[in-house]
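Comment thread on ticket #2218

A.B. wrote:
> Attaching the input chain for the structure job we discussed in standup.
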Amino acid sequence: MWSLLPRKLQATAIVFATIIAYLGLEWTYAWFASTPPGPFRQASFIVTIITGVLVLAANWAWPLLWRMIPALGRTLFPDLNGVWQGKLVSTWVDPATGEVMPPIDATITIRQTLFTTHVSLKTGESTSHSTRAFLERFAETQRFRIWYSYNNDAQAQFQHRSSPHEGVGFLECESDDLGSLTGRYYTARKTTGDIEVSRRSSSTQSKR
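C.D. wrote:
> Ran it. Output below, let me know if you need it in another format.
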């Protein structure tokens, strides 16, 4: 979510945090060096503590703000936290039979905070976890997209036909339908597939 904030606001917050952190370090050094810190340094140290607490509180409270202020989801990015269930449809064709794989049942779990986004996907044979993720907003068409890279690891009994691999994928929704996600994935094994899931639960935050 942080990446979608205006650049000027990001720069202002970073500069402010840097100044406060520097003053806080100066105060700490003066304290341990037995040099009585002046009132300004004392105040800067207090502000440093308060700033750190506020950052942690903002990250923790962000899902609550999403629910209390719906406009945040429309102007920044919707709250996609939760468990999603649906299908993967691979384009892979069995070279021995020429047959296309049937749709695969899949469960996707999305965890978002103010600063991070994590996507995991589980099927009957393997599990994937995102290694990086970033958010993209298409204001003109009111669409929102999560891009992510991932590592996939199949269960031992299936690794003879599904070796561990890396890939990238995306999931997107429209502002008037936040209960379903569609997307696509691309693997390092040169296969692709489509993703279609629906929200089943939005309670991942409370289970952490």
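A.B. wrote:
> Thanks. Noting for the ticket: The chain has two domains: 2-68, 82-207.
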